[in-house]
Amino acid sequence: MSIKTKLFAATALSLVSASALMAETITIATVNNGDMIRMQGYTDDFTAKTGHTVEWVTLEENVLRQRVTTDISTKGGTFDIMTIGMYETPIWGANGWLVGLDDLSAGYDAADILPAMAGGLSHDGTLFAAPFYGESSMIMYRADLMEAAGMEMPTAPTWDFIRSAAAAMTDRDNDINGICLRGKAGWGEGGAFITAMSNSFGARWFDMDWNAQFDTEAWANTLNFYKGMMDESGPAGYATNGFNENLSLFQQGKCGMWIDATVAASFVTNPDDSTVADKVGFALAPDTGLGKRSNWLWAWALAIPAGTQKEAAAKEFIEWATSKDYIELVAANEGWANVPPGARTSLYENPEYQKVPFAQMTLDSILSADPQNSTVEPSPYVGVQFAAIPEFAGIATEVSQEFSAAYAGQQTVEEALAKAQALTNDAMEAAGYR
C-alpha cells in the first residue's frame, strides 16, 4: 500500500471515528398523547439524518409533570429533553433551568412559529421551548345525534345550549352520554378544564391583591352548573376521566359532545381509530354572554434542561421534531389531518391543510384565547387555564382534588369551594403574596 493510500485510509477511518464519537443517545421525557406517540414512530428518520439515537420515557400527563418538575428542580439530570408547556416554560426559563433556543438554524425558521405560541414559551424575549403542537379547546360533537335530537349546533354556543343539547342526546339504554368532560384531579387535567370554564362564568382565581376568589357566586355557579350537567348527561365515573379517557369514549361512539383540546380533532376523525369519524362537527367553546369563552391556550413543547451534557444533540432533535420538514413527513405518510397542529403559521397558509375540516376552527380557537386578559374581572396573573406563578401547580393540584371529590359525591360543592378558598389563601400567605 502506498503512503498516499495509507494516508487516505487513515483519514477516512478518522472521519468515521469522529462521526461515531459525535453520535449521542439522548433521553426524552414525553406525555402519552397521540401526537407524541406518533413522533416516536418516526425516530428512525431522525437517527438516519443525525446518527443520534433516542431513549423515550413516556408518561401519563400528571406523572410527567411531577417527574420533570422534580428532576429539573433538583438538577437530577435524568433527561436531555423534556416535554413541558406554557405554564412551566417562562418560569423555568427565568430560573435559569432551561437552555435558550434563540440560536436554532436559519433553515428552522423560528419566525414561522405562531406568535401566540412563541410568546407563551418565552421569557424576556428568549424562546426556551419549541412547540411540538399548539392547541386551544373547542367542542367536538356528533352531528348525527344533534340532528336526531332536532337541534343545530351554533358556531359559538352558550353553556345553556350545551346543557340542553347534552340532555337531548343522552341515551342511557344505548350507553350514549350527551357530554364527556374532564373531571380528573390534576392542575393540567380537570383543573385546567374547570378553570377555563370558570372564566366564562365570570370567575377568577385571585383578585388584584392575590386573595382567593372561590367564595364567590361565580365559582359556585361554575361548579354547580358543571356537576349538574355531568350528573344528568355525563358518563359514570366522570370524576376520574381525563383527556385520554374521554377520547376513548368519544371514539367508541359513547359521547354526544366533548369539549377538550383542539388537537383531539385528528383522533376523533381518524377512521382507523374512531367509530364516528365521519359524523363529527366542531364549534367554539361555550360562553355565558359575559364576553369570555371557555377555551384555553396551551402548547406541548420540547425544552432542554440546563446542565445536560448533550445540548447540541438535543437541539438537533428539537429542530427535527418541530420543523416544517417533520410536518411534511407526517403528511406524506398519514395525511394532512394527522400532522401536529397549532404551532406554525405556514401550516395554516397551506392550501392542503386548509382542506382539513377542523383546521380553521382550531386556528380561530387559538387566536381567540387571550392569556393576558382571560377573566371578566381584572386579575393579577397571566394565563387562561392557569396562573403563571410558581406556586400555582401545587395549589391547583390540591384544589382540583377537592373539586373531583365533589363531582364524585364525596362532599358538596360548597364544601369543596370552602376548602379551596382556605388552602389557596394559606398557600399564598406562606409564599408571601399576602
What do you see in this structure?
This protein has 434 residues and is α/β, with parallel strands linked by helices. It has 2 domains: 3-135 and 298-354, Periplasmic binding protein-like II (D-Maltodextrin-Binding Protein, domain 2), CATH 3.40.190.10; 137-295 and 371-430, 3-Layer(aba) Sandwich (D-Maltodextrin-Binding Protein, domain 2), CATH 3.40.190. It contains 19 helices and 11 strands. The protein has helices spanning 3-22, 34-41, 43-50, 61-73, 88-94, 115-120, 143-148, 159-169, 190-200, 217-233, 243-251, 265-268, 311-321, 324-334, 345-349, 351-354, 359-368, 392-407, 413-430, and strands spanning 25-31, 53-59, 81-84, 122-123, 126-127, 130-135, 137-142, 177-180, 255-261, 280-284, 298-303. 48% of the residues are buried. Residues 3-20 have low confidence and may be disordered.
Name the features.
alpha/beta, 13% strand, D-Maltodextrin-Binding Protein, domain 2, five-stranded mixed beta sheet, four-stranded mixed beta sheet, 11 strands, 434 residues, disordered N terminus, 45% helix, globular
